[in-house]
Amino acid sequence: MSHRRAVLGGAAAALLALAIGGCGADVEPSQDTTTTAAQTPTLSATPTAPAPARSKPSASSRASKLRPPLAFHVRRRTMLRTAPDGRMVARIHTKTEFKSPTILAVAARKPGWVLVRTSYEHHHVGWLPLSAGALFSQPRSIVIDLSRRTLTVFHRGKLTDRYKVAVGTDATPTPRGKFAVTDRLRTGNAASDYGCCILALNGHQPKIAQGWGGGDRVAIHATPHTWTLGHAVSHGCVRSTNAALRQLMRHVRIGTPVTIHA
Fold it and tell me: How would you class 230 by CB atoms within 10 Å of its CB: exposed for 0-12, middle for 13-18, buried for 19 or more?
């Protein structure tokens, strides 16, 4: 893939850095600086808002009846803390860097507080006051099996879909652990290296082989290069077909938990 130097506006530039830094194409970049319309996707965020909760007498009673997995919709700026009422370590905004609503997967709860998964590299989890937003249930979850090279979708605990995927190489492995979808993005060009669509994750891939200046966020994205599926060939991202990603874009919401294991 040619090393792009085209100027992208706002979220498009940020996402291109994510895609290049975290995933990489199938070939090393050259010094050719020309860019064509076919090479440069136009990216746009596809936000999803949580479904409205049923009317209950109080917020605490609503929260007690929610079925996990849970997500937290940040509705006002707040500070991420190391513990409930603990040290402040980062500011959480109502929009992500790609202009999606900030909806974070919930890892744990305490009275008046939620432990959320973030995209901050040094603060993967942290506590937010419940008063800063609203809890809601996530109907789906995703499990990625690196050894089988499959992505499986569950709805309320029941398997609904399974897709063949490509994963990271031994030198640039797909990170393992518990993550979440932070943004749903469309490239505008299904023939691009990143296909039609991207589900950005809050995870990072610290072993970027190219040493490029882009970010190290990883994602689940489409690819037109279907021969790569079932193989360990990426720079950390998880790839599947355009058809698979279009289906995921229809069903997977921001804040959906993603478990990646060997």
Answer: middle
